[in-house]
Amino acid sequence: MADDLVNITIDGHQMAVPKGTLLVEAARQIGIEIPVYCYHPKMKPVGACRVCLVEVENQRRPMMPACTTTVMPDMVVHTRSDNAVEARGAVLEFLLINHPLDCPVCDRAGECDLQDFTQKYGNGNTRFIEQKRHFAKSKQVGKNVVLDRERCIMCQRCVRFCEEIAMEEGLVIVDRGNRSEIGTFEGRSFDSKFSGNVIELCPVGALTAKTYRFESRPWEQQHYAGICNVSSLGVNITVDVRYDEVVRLRGRMNDEIDDGWLSDKCRYSHLAIHSDDRILSPMVRNDQGQLTKVSWAAALERIVQAFPENASQIGLAVGTRLSVEDGHMLLRLGRGLLKTPNVVHEHEAESLGTNTTLTGRVKGCDAADVILCLGSDPAKSHHDFELRIKKGLRNKARLICIGEQPALVGYADYQVIGVASELWSKLKKELKKETTEEESGLRFPKPRPWEAGGETSQDWDALVKEIRGAENVLVVVSGDIAGQGLQDVARDVEDLGWNTAPHGVIHLRSGVNPVGHESIGLIPEWDEDGNQALAKAWEGMNTDSGLSYAEMCRGKTEMLLAFGCNPLAQPESKKPKFLVQAATHPDETTEKADVVLPLSMWVEYNGVYISTDGTVQFNRQAILPLGEAQPAWSIARELCLRLGASDLPENPRAVYSEVGSLHAALAGATYKDFQTPGQYHWSYPQQADLGMPRPDLSAIPVKEPDMPMWMPAPLTGSTVEGAGRLHRGQTPPPVPGQRDPREIAKLLGLNHPMDRTAPPALTAGGAEKKDGYIPLRVVPSTSAEPAGPTPAGRHHEIGVGPRRRVAVPVAQTALLEASDAADNTTEDGGEE
Amino acid sequence: MDRVIDDLIALGKGLSITFKNYLEKPVTKQYPEEKRDIPKRARGRHVLHRYNDGLERCVGCLLCQGTCPAGAIYIEAEENDKENPVSKGERHAKVFDVDLLRCIYCGHCEMACPTNAITLENNTALAGFTRESLLMHKEDLLEPEGSSTLGTTEYWDPKPPEDLSHRVPAQTGEFDGSSTSAAAVGRGDLDLNKAPKKPTRKEGDNA
């Protein structure tokens, strides 16, 4: 183990890090910040921006880029030496040469890495007086991506995202050298399913979102940790709220699920929250057949009166966008109080039953040898999963597509077209044959078809050999292989011995929270043995098997209550005698419903969602419910009260505790589960946003060999919180959950750049004050070399006086005077 | 006797002041018919300024809102229509509300403003019959069309000395070619969105 560790010294602090660690990551582990623009932990380093220059002792070149340099034994690194500080300032000065002074109109201002690092490490002034490079403003490169080429600092993060992560053609670098710019291929638009990620990746305001353009400023937002309500993957998001309005959604790093990326489908799903057609008040259909607004009390009274005598004639359909709490309260209403057996969620047809456990996880893609896509296209329904599959492909996985032709087929090594279940039974027969010696462990080191420009192989024998040689197999099942077919696949996979988490079968469910609803029994078959606690608590509850969702849609019940789903959009659907719908937006069902109730959307209340691979996650309320909208659990509670129930839980926290005490599948669950990371993914919004748990500094300088993996900072940069509140000369406020870098510096016995004392007064010709201003160009005499630890040369001090004061060393003054002379001859407006 | 003389002198002194003031003009102002002179740098109600061509100076950057310690300012920004721009540059304030009941007249907003769009002017006569009447909207705050002033900025923000190399376009009138600086120097009408001229390659230029 010790052989894998390398001893290095960073800023006088000795530490041991694993071989191959990049300097920037090693420094981060002990809380030393090295500014980066081009570097991103999820992408290959390129060393394009050079702002991460650090001083390494005994090297041929004194300044090394920390983002591309790996640790070497006994390396001595200085990140705050005079040379390092000066080099960093110089690089920033270069980056700012062509950067326009757009901050007042730039969407990025306040969370801009260029702003933040210039304030922290910049020289405080510009010496560039020539013409800046200019491009046309705001060029729309994609449906939702706006490019401002002037602001670009050519870090190539967006280009690398398209190439490496999304693995598709998107943004490219056009032209070369100092004329290079970001663009698309001639005549093409940048319309990727993942285009929004480049907006988050851009460290400056060069790429901005059309939907967010000029909408809000980061300093007036609150950030909440949420869960995506579009797909069942449980992608983690940050919900940014301005004046109780959701202005944007951003990705939130969760290595288990999303790897920090977010698909456009989810990214722009917040547009529905404040759309004009939201249903915001209860409505009842009057005698003329028109929906009229009524009070909540009147609407609920109308529903209670309409309940038929025969309880089995009532159906409750639950949308999968609802949380576990919603499902539980609706179960209480349906089975517990109305005593009807018909309480199901809308995607129960895909249900696997309780007997089979699937071991596949989303992160299983990373280390899989073979990813086997069975059935319809996972990339079509679960956009975020496509990026995860591609990550697997980049690692070592072979992609085999069986069944319908998927969008992923361009990346597949093998593809077999046909009926997935039939092909699977053929395949499993061949796999179950005795494996010969030669075949096991056999790999085919041949170029990938999508790399070599070749075609996807359809060679069945090679495919079987490939799977036999694989150790970790992830079977991705979606769409048409459901129910019985899926159970067969799960059993076969178990027989083949692939059931080792995180590999095995992963079933990509439709909807958002079907797994959550199944775990509390919203399926037609009621599991009596597994729910004894529930039967005891809810005396006289109905434990029969009920109707399926499809049957309910066909009007098999007299009365149907549809919560967050659209039963009349199903094939062969028929309106029951009395139809109640709780909905967020009008749809086919709303047109015919007798009572329509306004339903809250997911950001409007706390709730727990279980993702398709069984990850239990908490979604935090970000805004107040719009209009008169109510979450489904609350509506169900009101109906329960009207049916004579008492002792009902009063908030989602209490509902979830009841879920934990009554349901075997979630035994013991409470909201406290989400306070500690681990099996559950929970984090408070601000810390979540900044991502990275800082190491305990009391442990310094002893570093345990099994150090935690570095949790990378969020994609957007380093200092989102409070950055906008900074005034000149003010130091950034400490971020909750993070140690103040100056405190760390003090602990390490170092000088932090912000803590430097000002150099002694400069004695130079013509240095007298004029009107309260200190003249800018002070020529320090040689005797004015500052004594003591303060470094010579320029010092970093902004905002102490009415104007910035910057002392410029002699050599640079000469340059300035030369450029002054050039300035006098510069003509206005001329370009190149 | 001496004491009597002293008393008389004191009486004379006192009465001389009385008579002097009696002959002077009274200081009482007959407000509101007569208005007091207000110091030039006094901070009264906000005014939003315009450029010479009538376009608004405010670009809706929200810096004043961000710096306001009383939370008195509310802004919603919007993209400029290129045909009929409201302000120079890409964005403008669609909504600009100042709650005068919340405002503490500290002047941070004018300090924060990058385009000298907002100033606190000499209108200190601020009273209303309703709360709503003291919630100022953009129309109330904007200076009338045809007027283009800088307001009190010139008193509290004197021009920097000549040798300050950090040039602020709004102050130096210099134009560096960007649309921001064009706006700042009152040349927002320049068509900067034309594609830049492609440099002609010289022979032997392999770059």
Fold and architecture overview:
The complex is a heterodimer of chains A (832) and B (207). With 832 residues, chain A is α/β, with parallel strands linked by helices. Chain A has five domains: 2-95, Ubiquitin-like (UB roll); 105-112 and 131-272, Alpha-Beta Plaits, CATH 3.30.70.20; 283-352 and 515-670, Rossmann fold, CATH 3.40.50; 362-434 and 447-508, Dimethylsulfoxide Reductase, domain 2; 728-832, no CATH class. In chain A, 25% of the residues lie in helices and 15% in strands. Chain A contains 24 helices and 27 strands. In chain A, the strands form seven sheets. In chain A, strands 15-14-25-24-23-16-17 form a seven-stranded mixed sheet. In chain A, a hairpin with a 5-residue loop joins strand 26 (607-610) and strand 27. In chain A, helix 8 (324-338) packs parallel to helix 20. The two termini of chain A are 59 Å apart. Chain B has 207 residues and is an alpha+beta fold. Chain B has a domain at 46-157: Alpha-Beta Plaits (2-Layer Sandwich). Chain B has helices spanning 2-23, 63-67, 108-112, 138-141, 153-156, 169-172, 179-184, and strands at residues 46-48, 73-79, 91-99, 118-120, 135-136. In chain B, strands 2-3-5 form a three-stranded antiparallel sheet. A two-stranded antiparallel ribbon of chain B has the order 1-4. The longest helix of chain B has 22 residues, at 2-23. The N and C termini of chain B lie far apart (110 Å). The mean pLDDT of chain B is 82. The chains are: A alpha/beta (832), B alpha+beta (207). At the A-B interface, loops of A face helix 2, strand 2 and helix 7 of B.
Q: What attributes characterize this protein structure?
A:
heterodimer; A: 832 residues; alpha/beta; Ubiquitin-like (UB roll); Alpha-Beta Plaits; Rossmann fold; 5 domains; seven-stranded mixed sheet; 24 helices; 25% helix; B: 207 residues; alpha+beta; three-stranded antiparallel sheet; 5 strands
